[in-house]
Amino acid sequence: MITFSKVSETTEFIQNQKDNGKSIGFVPTMGALHKGHLELMKKAKSENDLLVVSIFVNPIQFNNPEDLEKYPRDLTKDKKLLEEINCDVLFAPSVKEMYPDEVIKKYDFGSLETAMEGASRPGHFNGVGVVVSKLFNICIPHKAYFGEKDFQQLAIIKKLVEMESFPIEIIACPTVREDDGLAMSSRNERLTKTERASAPFIYEVLNMALDNRELLCPNILRQYVLNQFSDRPEFNVEYFELADDVNLQPVTAWNESIGTIGFIAVNLGKVRLIDNIRII
Ligand code: PAF
């Protein structure tokens, strides 16, 4: 694996590979790699000649300084995992390398960014849009791979590709879960033992929502989900929303022709977790 920290060297190397007819699969990450990331990478590796991974904890997508400070970082361990899956190129820049100047770019993702994560984390999706756009320009991939756990982020990135006319195919990959159902996330590392034991309840409740969807209309189902947490004080639910899978607009009546997802964000102790489930 070749590791780069400089933008120009990374682009030059990858462009050279492309000129030699190689296809490039790209997985952007913030490190603290887990099995979910590795699944994206294995898929990218199997579908392309070269696997390029970036590790960059992007400060401008964190609206909470404590969250940024506590975000897990272990580049040595990450590099070992990348070597094991035969990653070809790692791009791991510094903040100064990525942002030599103040960031002034403002994206307008319309209604995609106003609900759920956008409402709960002001500025988050602009930060994601700015960094992913830069990473796409630096790593110039043919295909880029993202997990469906961050479903709203995936919708934003598809929109970004359309807005910026990036010649890149976005590949959505299913959420990878622990055996007990907890969606894999770098943030899980920060759960205490007791919180980790409680955490699978989130996916249990999402499945209860799915099981009850034929009995309850969307508004009642929303309330039903929130009620499940009423005698679980360790959870602080930020939102549970039922929204369509393209525009992410709230669903008010079931319609078999409208793909519908149940989205949840909860705080468990000091850790914020998100998950989702396909309802239709
Ligand atoms: O999903 C993530 O890890 C990040 O939001 C991403 C896409 C790498 C941008 O920083």
Describe the structure.
- The protein is α/β, with parallel strands linked by helices and 280 residues long.
- The protein folds into two domains: 2-173, Rossmann fold, CATH 3.40.50; 186-273, Pantoate--beta-alanine Ligase, Chain: A,domain 2 (2-Layer Sandwich), CATH 3.30.1300.10.
- It contains eleven helices and nine strands.
- The protein has helices at residues 7-19, 35-47, 65-70, 75-84, 95-98, 116-120, 124-139, 151-164, 193-198, 201-211, 218-228; strands at 2-4, 24-29, 50-55, 89-91, 143-147, 169-173, 235-244, 260-268, 271-278.
- The protein has a six-stranded parallel sheet, with helices on both faces. Strands 7-8-9 form a three-stranded antiparallel sheet.
- The model has no long low-confidence stretch (mean pLDDT 97).
- The structure holds pantoate (PAF).
- Residues 28-30, 58, 61, 128, 131-132, 150, 153 line the site of pantoate.
Question: Which structural traits does this protein have?
Answer:
280 residues; three-stranded antiparallel sheet; six-stranded parallel sheet; Pantoate--beta-alanine Ligase, Chain: A,domain 2; alpha/beta; Rossmann fold; 2 domains; binds pantoate; 39% helix
